[in-house]
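Morning F.,

Quick status update on the modeling queue. The single chain you submitted on Monday has been processed. Sequence for confirmation:
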Amino acid sequence: MSTINTSFSDFFTEAAMVLTNAREHPEIAAALDAFGYDAATLQAGQALLDTARDLYDAQIKEYGEQHAATQAFLDASGRADKAYAAHRRLAKIAFKGDAQRQTDLHLNDRKPRAFNPWYQQARHFYTALLADAEAQTQLARYKVTLEALQTALSDVEQAFTLKSSQEQEKGEAQEATQKRDAAIDALDEWLADFKVVARIALEDTPQLLEALNLAA
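Structure tokens below.
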């Protein structure tokens, strides 16, 4: 997009003005037609503009969806991690003299900061506890109920689901950006050629060049 030095909105506005005046001003249209820019050619330029605008709007929509998915993931993972951190601290007390459970529940390991290893550790923690009735009894002393463990595991899984949705939305937003940029590049290239031809076709009528915003 080397020739675009303005905002997208300014670029689209200028392109629309050029194409509208080129089609609707009889003298400009006649002069351009003599150099190969007939109504069909100008309509092709309009189609490029319409496509670029549509893809610009679609890209904004996709990034909005990505941002929403990211916020949903951050909210859910934050809730799940808060519960997991508290349950880990209580488990360290409950199983202080139990080397086997300390190892199995990764209580002596750091809690990962990155999501994927965090998810694997948290999921294993709750899955193991939910399969261990004796451990549940020991945790019940600290008011960690079976229902609390089930809810916490559900929250961990929800965070994983929302992370997957976030990644999907991220990919769709990136794809939308690529399509938008390709469409804008195509329109920009078409306009660059058009402006060269228009300056030749309207060389002796500067007032008509002014109507296309092409005056020197």
